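Customer escalation, tier 2.

The customer says the design service returned an amino acid string that "doesn't look like it belongs to this structure." They asked us to rerun it and document both sides in this ticket. The original structure tokens are below, unchanged.
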């Protein structure tokens, strides 16, 4: 997989990840932990079916041979699957999204110290600019209420887990098949949220919608992300992941009539501009390096 294909793959991944908000706007009765449980359950079923079709009984062997990297990644996926929804039950969407926008910064730090990867200045600049854009988008909805502080601390688990996960996949993804880690993460998320989801209130329509999220919003894009993670630098993967916020706002506008205000449009433009500039500068840098190598 070349760099351009990997970028296209991350575009698709973030586009699919971003539909969760607009779909949950159309649920009848399912809320918070039940939403997380059903979504994780269908994700686990999809991943189990995929592993059974592609590896059969060899899936157990893959898990045994995955070693520490597989279980670290699986645990991080479970944190990411679960803490986002838990945080939303405790604080505002603005608090959660601004906290999650720290993912590229944390990922760059983990990649620098754990993997020894040097983060180029253009990527640092894009991280700062994109984070500022998201902060500007949602600054009007920030809350300092104590319970919201707890929610923000729960949300902080998501970018921390993402940073560890992307770096783990970058280091081990080329030698260890980490796709079963998704199955582990989904199963752990199911187990943690099941007691808190009872008694079930979801209608059949809710279960169908959440089943669609489990398959198309989590299982499929996460499988693509696992394959991409070993092809792109971890900070770049996390930075591209911020597109989920921008796409999510667009989906809410188109599918739920939630029109973004001027602040959101300005902040979103800054995020998109930072991402585009980072990729353009990277493309020019790769071309210049190639010309220098050919000339030498």
């Amino acid at each position: 997989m070349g760099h351009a294909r990997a970028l296209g793959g991350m575009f698709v991944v973030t586009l699919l990840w971003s539909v969760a908000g607009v779909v949950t706007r159309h649920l009848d009765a399912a809320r918070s932990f039940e939403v997380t449980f059903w979504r994780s359950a269908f994700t686990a079923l999809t991943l189990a079916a995929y592993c059974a079709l592609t590896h059969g009984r060899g899936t157990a062997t893959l898990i045994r041979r995955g070693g520490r990297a597989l279980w670290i990644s699986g645990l991080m996926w479970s944190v990411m699957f679960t803490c986002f929804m838990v945080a939303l039950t405790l604080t505002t969407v603005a608090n959660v999204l601004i906290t999650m926008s720290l993912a590229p910064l944390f990922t760059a730090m983990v990649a620098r110290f754990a993997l020894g990867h040097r983060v180029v200045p253009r990527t640092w600049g894009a991280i700062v600019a994109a984070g500022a854009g998201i902060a500007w988008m949602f600054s009007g909805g920030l809350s300092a209420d104590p319970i919201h502080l707890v929610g923000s601390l729960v949300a902080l688990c998501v970018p921390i887990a993402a940073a560890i996960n992307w770096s783990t996949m970058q280091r081990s993804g080329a030698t260890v098949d980490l796709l079963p880690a998704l199955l582990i993460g989904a199963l752990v998320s199911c187990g943690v949220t099941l007691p808190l989801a009872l008694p079930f209130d979801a209608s059949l329509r809710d279960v169908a919608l959440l089943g669609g999220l489990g398959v198309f919003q989590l299982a499929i894009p996460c499988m693509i992300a696992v394959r991409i993670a070993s092809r792109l630098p971890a900070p770049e993967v996390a930075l591209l992941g911020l597109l989920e916020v921008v796409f999510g706002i667009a989906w809410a506008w188109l599918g739920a009539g939630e029109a973004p205000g001027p602040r959101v449009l300005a902040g979103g433009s800054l995020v998109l501009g930072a991402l585009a500039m980072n990729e353009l500068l990277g493309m020019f840098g790769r071309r210049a390096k190639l010309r220098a190598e050919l000339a030498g």
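Tier 2 assessment: The sequence is consistent with the input. Residues 262-295 form the longest helix (34 residues). The chain has a mean pLDDT of 84. Sent an explanation to the customer and offered a walkthrough call.
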